[in-house]
Every structure is written in structure tokens, then in C-alpha cells.
Amino acid sequence: MNHSINQVFRTARVLISVSYAYMVEYRAELFLWALSGSLPFILMGVWMEAAQGKQFGLGPLDFARYFLAAFITRQFTIVWVIWDFEKEVLSGQLSNRLLQPIDPVWRHLAGHFSERFARLPFAAGLVGLFFLLYPQSFWIPSLTTALLFLLVVVLAFILRFLIQYTLAMLAFWTERASALEEFWFLFYLFLSGLIAPLEVFPPEVRAVALWTPFPYLVHFPASLLAGLPVDLGRGVLMMLGWSLLFFGLNRWLWRKGLREYSGMGA
Amino acid sequence: MERYLRVLSIFWRTTFAAEMEYRLNFVVSTLSSLGQLVGNLFGLFLFYRTGYTFAGWDWEQALIVLGIFTLFQGFSSTFLSPNLNQIVKHIQQGTLDFVLLKPISSQFWLSTYTLSPWGIPNLIFGAILIGYAGGRLGLGVSNYLFSLIPLFFGFVILYSLWFMLGAMSIWFVKIYNVTEVLRGLLEAGRFPMAAYPVAYRFFFTFVIPVAFLTTVPAEALLGRTELIWTLGAGILALALFLASRAFWQFALRFYTSASS
User: Fold this and answer.
1) What is the 3 state secondary structure string of B51-81?
2) Euclidean distance between CA atoms B84 and B107, whole angstroms
3) Least buried of A8, A177, B103, B256, by fewest C-beta within 10 Å?
């Protein structure tokens, strides 16, 4: 028993350190990816300007903190597994992975996990720069908030990864699974709270959106960190519920898909 | 000149023939453009639904900016990204050699070789949006014609910036995603500049000239442009275009040709 746990830890350590070394090789790229997530900062400007008039129920400072928190959340939850997986299926590389005595998902997960650490310095630098330019917005969340945020953002990452990996399974049947991801991303973009906090949505849209997984990927963690009121219990339950659903779907599609898989080109 | 036009027509005929093999992709991209349009409208509506307006821009006028923004999205995914994002591949694999050997400007070849019809739905939706809002505002034909001038300048500005960033891959092969940063910043063009705080306006006018892409043509379309802005857009477009040519010639001196 002890032996097998050690084995798991050793495998995890090797996978993570290998992919970390790989990610650090691509520092310049990572920096540019971090910069390309500038959308929250753009919308921050528009909303802060709009909030001068007090029609929106949130002040300029709330918007500034919310969008900064949304930026941070996004840095932690970026997922690209579908493009890697699609490539592996279409080129037949997946066959090699299947020969190894470990589910291929762990390799992807290790890649995403270690990329977070390689990206962290750049994201922290951008946040520092932001506070330097706009010191009034500076705030330090309490320790409980910070820990809760960490927990919620990990859940958000897991949920996002599960959804995208489930869509990736469709690569067994179609050649353009990533087109589905792009379509799904539109809903993510407009309903997750990336373009505006859900507080300014029309109430009906908001009520519907809160039953979908989208707001829990950005709005929920970001509001928590920015100190806006959140329904913690409901949020966590929704995230767990959706995660379970997609986990089940994913494993089912994985088994079905492997039977479909012909390993072309390998 | 005539030779260039002939080459261009051959390039695009073959691309179209090739892309028509993948008609399903076209359906997919129409659907996602439609989704994007609905989302963009929703994003704008969030501001206007409480009675707030961007200073000096009614709902219809803001729609025109959004329409022009959609046109630019279509333009960049039809013409710019399929060509300019290939530059890095040519450099990585050394196939830039073959381009340089052709008896035609290499910048022209790299910028026009292919085009992707997937951006066309965005071009159409952008035009519809502008037509709808323009109809509501009662704009005349002369407004549309006059706005074509700054719109053209905007296309040239965007092309030149994009090309220069792409050309930088001669030195740094690994920064192929630098254009993503530009794309991210262009998102700012979906709102008129009046919607932003002063510091943002400064940045998006003088550092990353997003204001010249969407706001200036929209003002021209609304018939309230000041000559100085159109003139400024023209000078900027010309300067950036010449800069992109000079930059390419300069960059080529450092090209060492991989694997050949």
C-alpha cells in the first residue's frame, strides 16, 4: 500500500518537473500569453467610466477590483487541452500514450499544473504594475478570503478542464473538435462575467446564467476575491455538481471513443 | 502593377477552390460569427439598458462603432491572420527562401498568398449592423462614401502593425503569439473612445492606435468628423505602411535561413 502511494507521488513529481522545465523554455511565449489576456483591463476602463454615474449599483473601485480579480482568475484557469488532444488523436500519437501504464490525462494535467507556476511571475508582475498605476484600488483580502479564493479557483480550473476535456473526446468522431470549443467559448466569454460582473446583467438573464456552469468559472471566484457578496454554499455546490456531471460524461465518452479510435498515421 | 493584380487573382482563385472543399467549416464559422454578434450586442446593451450613454453616443451611434469593429474582425480573419501568422512558419522551416527567390515583392507574396473565407460572415454581419443603425439614423449615401476613406486608412494601419509584429519572428521565432497581444488590445475598438477614461483614450490613440480603426471611421460615417482626425489617420497609415516596408527590408538582413 505504502509502496503504491510512493509510486504515485514519484510519477507525479516526474511528470510535473518535466513539464515545468518544458514550460520555462517558453518564457517569452508565456509572457505574451499573459499579456494577451488584456480584455478584463479594457472592460475595466469602460465600466469605471460608466460607474461615475452611479446607475449600476457598483462604484468605480468595485469594478476595478472585480476586473483585476477576473484577470487573476483567468490566469489560473486557462486550459488548452483540447488542441493538444485533438492533435494527438488526428496524428495517431495517442497510440504511444496508450501503451504507457498511465492514463494520458495525467500528462495533460501535469502540463497545465506546472504552466501555472511558470506563468505566476508574469501575472504577479502585471498585477504589481496595475497597483503602481492605480494605487487607490489596492486591497489585501483577509486570510480566509484568500484561502477560500484559492480553493474556489482550483475548483474552477478543474471544472473548466473537465468541460474542455469532455469536448476533446469528440475528436474521436470529428476532425474539428476544437471548433466546438470555440463555439462554447462564446458562451463562456459573455456569460462567465468576463465582460461584466453578473450584478449588472438584467435579472432574468442573471437567474438563467446562474444555473449554467459559466459564472462559476470567472464571476464567482473573482467576486469572492474582490470582496463582493457571493453565495458561497451555492457556488461550491454548483461547481461540484457540474464537475461530477462532466466527469461522468467524460469517462463514458472516453471508453466509447477508444473503441472508435483507429490510430491513423501511427 | 498589372503583374501583381494577375498574381493576386491566381492566388485567390486557388484558395477559394481549396476552401470550397470544406463547406461545413463555413457553416460553423457563420454560426460562431452570429453568436459573437449576439454577445457583442448584449455586452453593449448592458451599458445602455439603465439609461446610461457613452458621452455623445446614442445606442444607434454606438451600434455603428460595433458594426465597424465587426468589419475589422472579419477583415483580420479573412486577410491578415491566415497570411501573416504563416510568416513564422516560413522562417522556422526555412521555406522563406522560396518566397525570396520569386521575382515579386516578398512582402506582397507573404501578405496576400491566401485568404480565409471564414471571416466573410463577420464582414456581412458588420455591414448589416452598420446598414441597420445607419437607416435608423437616416444617413445618406455621401456619409457612407465619405467613411470609406478613414476605413481604408484603418485597414492599412492594422495591416502594417500586424505585419511588423509578424516580421519580428525573424529574430524571435518563439514569439509567434505576439499578434495575439495585438488582437487582445484591438478588442478595445468595440466601444467608442468616449467610453473610456482619459488615460485609456491617450493609450488607444497614441500608443496602440485603436481609435483610428473604429471611432474615427464611425465619426466620419455620422458626418461629424473633424478634418484633422481623418488627416491624422491618413498620415499614420502612410507612415506605418512605409515603416512596415522598411522594417521588412531591415529584418531580412538578419534572416539566416533554417535547414537549407
Assistant:
1) CCCECCECHHHHHHHHHHHHHHHHHHHHHHH
2) 10
3) B103
Structure-block grid coordinates of residue B208: 496602440
CA distance B107 to chain A (A): 25
**CB neighbour list of residue A71: distance below 8 Å, 6 or more residues apart:** A37, A40, A41, A123, A126, A127
Residues of A with Cβ-Cβ distance to B187 under 8 angstroms: 38-39, 42
Q: What is the pLDDT of residues A101-155, one digit of tens each?
A: 888 899 899 989 888 888 888 889 989 999 998 888 888 888 999 999 999 999 9
Please indicate whether, in this complex, the C-beta atoms of B187 and A176 are within 8 angstroms of each other. Answer: no
| Chain A positions with Cβ closer than 8 Å to B | 26, 28-29, 32-33, 35-39, 42, 45-46, 48-50, 53, 55-56, 176, 179, 182-183, 186-187, 189-190, 195-196, 200-202
- A36–B183 CB contact, under 8 Å: yes
Q: What are the tens digits of pLDDT across the range A154-186?
A: 999 999 999 999 999 998 888 778 888 888 999
- In which residue are the cell numbers 455621401 written? B142
Q: Do A36 and B32 touch (CB under 8 A)?
A: no
Distance, in Å, from the CA atom of B164 to the CA atom of A53, rounded to the nearest integer, reads 41
